[in-house]
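Fig. S4 source data, part A: sequence.
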Amino acid sequence: MGNYFHFLVSIRPLPEQKKLYESRNLKTKQLRSPSKHLSNFFSSYTQSINKQNGRRESLFQKNFKRKEIDSEEYFRKLVIYIHQNPVLHGFTNSYKEYPYSSFSHYLHSGSESFLNCNKVLKLFGGIENFNTAHEENIPAIEYF
């Protein structure tokens, strides 16, 4: 989509994060919040694009928004909303064919991807339920 995107990130529980952090030989000795990691990611991305294009200004208009997902139901609704969003805003006629969506990765969950397709499909009760849920008319939801 031309002026925004959605990013749904699943974070490991804090004890698991600490265990992974402690098992690595990292320069920093402080466990950072997931928001800080995303902020650093967007900052690095902006710096790279600016360097590549000889720019100096901000790449993004506003800071990213974030909200904790507090239930599996809300998580499922967000997955569907994100996939249907390009249709809702007139970028495409079919969420299944939108080239900048993760939807097709779930259909081919055996293919290599950074997405945890199996976890998401399990929350939907399998690929058939995943497809069915997407075909139902889900109204736009307030996620922020």
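Fig. S4 source data, part B ends here. The radius of gyration is 18 Å.
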